[in-house]
Known about the structure:
The protein is an alpha+beta fold. It folds into 3 domains: about 1-80, no CATH class; about 80-90 and about 100-280, Thrombin, subunit H (Beta Barrel), CATH 2.40.10; about 280-389, Roll (Pdz3 Domain), CATH 2.30.42.10. It is about 25% helix and about 40% strand. The strands form 5 sheets. It has a 7-stranded antiparallel β-sheet with strand order 5-4-1-2-3-7-6. Strands 8-9-10-13-12-11 form a 6-stranded antiparallel beta barrel. Strands 15, 16, 19, 20, 21 and 22 form a 6-stranded antiparallel β-sheet that branches. It is elongated. The termini are far apart. The relative contact order is 0.10.
Amino acid sequence: MKQTIWIAFFAAAFGAAFGVFIAQDRAVSRVSAQQTKENSAGGQAGISVASTLKLDPTEQSQYTAEELVNFNVYDSTNRGVVHITTRSARTSAFLLFETPTEGAGSGSVLDKDGHILTNNHVVRGAREIYVRLYNGEEYPAGVVGSDELNDLAVLRIEAPDDFLHPIAFGDSAALRVGQKIHAIGNPFGLERTYTVGIVSSLNRQLPTADRRTMKSIVQIDAAINPGNSGGPLLNNQGEMVGVNVAIASKVGESSGVGFAIPANTARRVVPQLIENGRVIRPDIGITRVYKTEDGLLIATVAPEGPADRAGLKGFKLVKTRTQRGPFIYEQTRVDQSQADLIVAIDGQAVNNVDQFMTIIESGKPGDEVVVTVIRDNQREDVKVVLGGE
Length: 389
């Protein structure tokens, strides 16, 4: 009986080990297949995952399948990661002079034209920006465009094509919790530092300086620190699936909770920043609202704007005159009784400004939205054609 139990135990252990070996072998095979596919495509923008590992079979046997994947990701992408330094001036609150300040961050080469992707907060307010490439060459950079809401900015440098190694975008919508990811950046000025981790969660939210919310944020446990901001988050194929943006820490250093802007957001924003210098978002023409328990009460609308043309109503200024003896007194009061109360947009309930703006900005100029309001105690749908900012 004991012999039978031991045989069963060793058989199970062998089966588990064999299963792990097969799983790792399949992972490497998938990477190899992807490399072959991308190599045959050729001519596409961005670094392919063409194998950069020059190891003979004997050398490869010294490493695990996981390590070989790590080697390949780093070797195929690290030359596309840049070190960004900034110089600015801070005015003293008490003294009438400016104090020079410096900042640093990371970025990714987007194309052979010298466009660099980073976080907007890395370069915000900078008077001078410098980009150092993998080979130590440093170039002055200018801001092509920035997007405060998504904390993204595109820079441009004049550098030889040979020095520019673009990193291709991946599909951040395909990310799964538990998926392995890779981060490269310049924490504390330590250039092209590589860390590994997993996707800890998806669809996180981060507050912005203007009381809005960045949505669909990727939470990771790969170590990122000050200086990593703007650097790429990569998948096993060496594709950029996110832009590292922040850490949650009480001491300002990595605590195992990092955040990245999804690559699909950057993919949508970058072309507009390069073409227009900003993101052209749809505008509904409502300039001020007040939050109530039942919805958003319209205070003001832009004259001749989309909301005004559609007939949405805000507060009214009512002037009254009172005569007392020989004197006439004029008073102005705000009449809220005729203002529309917004309760939904396109059938989606709205309870705060962030929800309202998120729905509006998911469209584009020229789109028609249905604004559901309470008017004279009656629910009413008003069609509004969105304008552009």
